[in-house]
Specification:
Layout (H helix, E strand, L loop, with lengths): L17 E6 L19 E2 L2 E2 H11 L4 E6 L4 H6 L4 H9 L5 H10 L2 E6 L6 H6 L2 H4 L4 E4 L3 E3 L5 H12 L2 E7 L9 E5 L7 E9 L10 E9 L2 H8 L10 H10 L3 E5 L4 E3 L3 H14 L4 H16 L3 H15 L1
Parallel strand pairs: 1-4, 1-6, 4-5, 8-12
Antiparallel strand pairs: 2-3, 6-11, 7-13, 8-11, 9-10, 9-11, 10-12
Amino acid sequence: MIAPHPPADPASPRPVRKAVVPAAGLGTRFLPATKATPKEMLPVVDKPAIQYVVEEAAAAGLDDVLMVTGRHKRAIEDHFDHAFELEQALAAKGDTVRPDAVRDPARLADIHHIRQGDPLGLGHAVLCARHHAGDQPFAVLLGDDLIDPSETLLSRMLDVRDRHAGSVVALMEVDPAQIHLYGCAAVEEPGEDGVVRVTGLVEKPSREEAPSRYAVIGRYVLDPAVFGVLERTRPGRGGEIQLTDALRELAAAGTVRGVVFDGARYDTGDKAGYLRSVVRLARARPDLGPGFRSWLGKFVAALEDGADQGAVRAGGRERRRAA
């Protein structure tokens, strides 16, 4: 049992400097690829998904990052460490570009690691960060949700925390047919700045039971008071300690706000979302985008004409000629 910690006063705003990235899941949706490779290390174009998340935290000024991992996640620790032998091998070949790509993950932030131990859910993973966060507010970033680097969602959430204290969640309006896949927030009507007061939360409700169309997506800025609530939160859906259940209690006390987000988000939590994310991010890359968009346009046109096999064969011939 994690030792009790005095609850913080949510009326006293403190600057946020720490981020927590839960990364202990088994990744069963991506088996067999995740049998030996952590789901968070699956490449999205040419970077593992978890690197996008740490880059987002660093860009928002969060330079202290705690990874909550589990067994068989050593690859995550290695990725955010220095690889001197690899750097030296690239330098010996006269490579002046890729060494920076190898060094960058270790230079993003001051990164720490702790093991969750028992797979008891997101709420328990957050509780594992108690001693690291102490009495300071902290952000939680889920690795399944990638936010486009051009967006400022996390910075907006930190600003709301600075103004109002308490906890802040990211909300996104979704199709009612999809609301059962998310935690759902009951909210007051959003103001002009897209900030709402959250009055209640329901974990993965049916369409009929959902209090709104606002889904909670994987970004949180949490007051340390959440630890005291999580400590007494009983396991809920799936026998896990749900962060949603703890936030519901805080929302009832009037200390939770939501930031409504309508920007670019990439959901890599399932295979179809993962594939869409790779395509969308590749299209936006200045080094890959022009050629990839051209090929993709021709491929889609060929599909619409029912000539996709010919397009695939032609693409293969072009690659062989280029090689």
